[in-house]
Amino acid sequence: MKVLKFGGTSVSSVETVQNISSILKNTKENTIIVCSALSKVTNMLTDAAEKAAKGETDYIEIANEIEKRHHDFIDQLIEKDKQENLKEIISNHINDLKKILDAVHFLGELTTRGYYSIVSFGEKMSNAIIYRYLSNNNGSTGYLDSSQIIITKTINGKEQVNRSKTYLNIVEKYNPQYKITVAPGFISKSENGYATTLGRGGSDYTAALYAAALDASLLEIWTDVSGIYTADPRKVKNSYPLNKISYREALELSNFGAKVIYAPTILPILEKEIPMVIKNTFKPEDPGTYVSKETEHTENAIKAFSTMDNIAVITFSGTGLVGTTGIAGRLFTTLSNNNINIIIITQASSEQSICIAIESNDAEKATQSINKEFEYEIKRGTINETKADLQFSVLAMVGEGMKNAPGLAGKAFSALGKGNVNIHAIAQGSSELNVSIIIKKTDAINALNVLHDTFTQK
Ligand code: ADP
Ligand code: ASP
Ligand code: MG
Q1: Which of ligand 2's atoms lies nearest the C-alpha of 186?
Q2: pTM score, whole prediction
Q3: Does residue 186 contact residue 34 with C-beta atoms inside 8 Å?
Q4: Is 185 in the pocket of ligand 2 (CB under 6 A)?
Q5: Residue 183 CA to ligand 1 centre (angstroms)
Q6: Contact, 91 vs 70, CB < 8 A?
Q7: CA distance 249 to 304
């Protein structure tokens, strides 16, 4: 069996849904299809939730707009006599949504639990429509309710999938008698039964979980571009799709900002060695990118580039760092106790400073907790008070070929120098397939283009 995932733009037009139906008609194997919310709907739901919490009342208009968008889509896609109660199902969801939004408005507070239940409606509604369409056009179709099957647990304040429970549920609930089964992406529930999600972009991950649990032969991710490109095609005009990359390369790229694949997707398929192909719903004839254990060795040691914006840099410094053991340990323990995800660490050879890149959202919490932990040393003057510098980006250069190619960092430095980009710090991942550079956010697009043109030949 195979698992096919269709992203928001891929389920938002009549043409692409018809494409999905014909892709499925041409597939001999059993298929699970995982769909995202209609394009932009998750953003609209988030917006409505935030407005309600702030005491603004136009969340009601947003909810009405979302309802209309789904009703219009049903009218375009499904003939009246085959719609049955589909519009009613959507309106019932919208009524439930409005009740939750009203509660948020009344309380003036958006809790994590409230947020999860609000953003879950997008996938519930889109998948209800796709399910009805496929049942009408492709024959009897199964439905797996991911909101009851995918189980998460809270670890360090974040929802993580409980994979053993989830896999058991999938195996138990999947009925192979259906050739096609629809399963919504993104949505899940906590161990104590409340709505949760797998994080923004999480439908890719949902699809990987179904694929791994059922030992699928292939995971297909259908999106709005023809594969994983040498860099984000929206930022680098000369970028082009890669034929074949390894799981490790895909993981590095997605971890460092290539949103074409949601990073947690890779682990379940890597463990089961299930290949993944990224395809373009608007150009199904394009070959796309094949991701498996092996990479393709090309002339380019660096295969692809990605950037993460909204990065803060924290410089932890002071004479107390020199030759003293245990300081770095305390620093990292403090950050980990406060659930702060470290993206890059570099230490100058003088040992006088450690530079850490984190997400800007975490900057305040990070500096406060560090300054509290080192209060005594700061008072004595052996450690400097830590401040965060916002407005940075991280640019990652990724490729399995990098470990055997000396001089890449030097070449990158000189190219960036010529391009007038100032490098704040540089770090090599222990895997040796990623070199990351910290630069000013305003330099990111320029740097991306400069490095892309220096290192890639088609
Ligand atoms: P979907 O809604 O189908 O999940 P996403 O918007 O999450 O689609 O991901 C596709 C987008 O990822 C592309 O439109 C592209 O702008 C962006 N992207 C970022 N980096 C890359 C890359 N290296 N290759 C291809 N697309 C990329
Ligand atoms: N709809 C969700 C989002 O926009 C999940 C997804 O599209 O993968 O983040
Ligand atoms: Mg996505």
Answers
A1: 5
A2: 0.95
A3: no
A4: yes
A5: 22
A6: no
A7: 9
